[in-house]
Amino acid sequence: MKRRNSRDLAFQLVYAMEMSGEDKDTVLKRFSAVSDKMDAEESKYAMQLFEWTLDMIPDLNESLKPIIQHWSIERLSKVDKSLIYLGCSEIEMSETPASVVIDEMIELAKVYGDKNSPSFINGIIDSWRKKR
Fold this sequence. Notes:
The protein has helices at about 5-20, 25-35, 40-65, 80-95, 100-110, 115-130. By secondary structure, it is an all-alpha fold. It has a single domain (about 5-130), classed as NusB-like (N-utilizing Substance Protein B Homolog, Chain A, Orthogonal Bundle), CATH 1.10.940. The chain starts with a helix and ends with a helix.
């Protein structure tokens, strides 16, 4: 199983919800063709990450406020916000080492974010991890 594929799909799901404002079921229906083509374990982990992230968003919005100084969570790019949500959720809910999760979020930021996204996401997730 490649967790990178799982994280990529989970990111796309969280990002799709952020962009569209659609509910979870609608987003999952749109992405079912993608997840159906994945290895069963990869797809299962992607769905688990997605669920963890959705469950944690309200708490993350509160716990990230003091970390994202001079900004509000609403002002972050949707890519950065989605990756921060996903990374924090995986650190909180899984047994995967935080350093591995942060490295994976940085790699996704290089693909989907702008030139500043990798270092920004690294700093925010690491600060959040240290304060939890």
